[in-house]
Amino acid sequence: MLLLANSEAYPGFETSIDLLKKGEHGLDAMVAGIAHVERDVRVRSVGFGGWPNMLGRMEFDAGVMDGSTREVGSVGAVPDTLPVAALARKVMQTLPHVMLTGDGARRFATETGFSIDETLYEDSKRVWWERLEKELGPEGIKQFPDVPLAPLSKTITDPERVRDTTVFLCSDARQGIHTATSTSGWAWKYPGRLGDSPIPGAGFYADSRYGAAACTHTGEMTMRCSTARTVVLALKLGYSLGDAIKLAVEELAELTEGFLAGVVIHAIDAKGNHEVVNFRCPGDIAYWYWDETMSAPEKRAAKTV
Ligand code: ASP
After folding, report:
1. Which residues form the active site (predicted)?
2. Which CATH superfamily groups domain 2-304?
């Protein structure tokens, strides 16, 4: 058994370990851990502590993949709902669909017993409004929200608020390799924008025969390169874990037009190896790791390429 997650995972990582040790299905273990991350306001990029879209509304993305069956559930741009990784799991278990978005996802949440929550944290609201006032100026703010939002989209690159996700990957006691994601997406994103966290193949992918991968940071990069799927397919083709990630990084590095920014790839293979690689993200990137030989999880540093 092993569990790998990015640095935001600390509020829920040990919950997931405990459930894995009890022999729970890995997706249930990870979704339970992620629910703690989603509720914790110290995590400023996921769930309640995250940042709203340009209209000041929280829209959450999440995805889960069962590597043994290759079943996927995902939700995108869901308003007023937590926990959303659990909602993605519910989509997988209940519907003949893979993905629900927006109002349809909220409707499904109500049907399946998720309460309607206030998900905009007071401090996020304050920062969003101050930024909006600065961007629009005294005249523009009087017109809000009846203003064109597209010119504001440059603010989504705000280096202080940027973006992140929580990603969990595990190998469970049932020989399953699975992955789950959750995020509030980019701060000040255009309403309706989906990142890669709900997109199978881009933000996450798992196949118990070979391994799993999940990405954080710029979904606009991984969606163009199917990054998570690239890693797992390369494992299937016989690449080592390091070479599989290298291949995915080469694909990202070949993008030269459009919006370009960094990506962190987290990956595990069916032999028990793991690797976390930072491709062009500023600063030091850390991750959490635990396997059954360890008495406690460790925070480790990602490799930079
Ligand atoms: N990958 C996510 C997205 O593009 C956010 C992040 O991990 O930074 O929405």
Report:
1. 165
2. (Glycosyl)asparaginase (3.60.20.30)
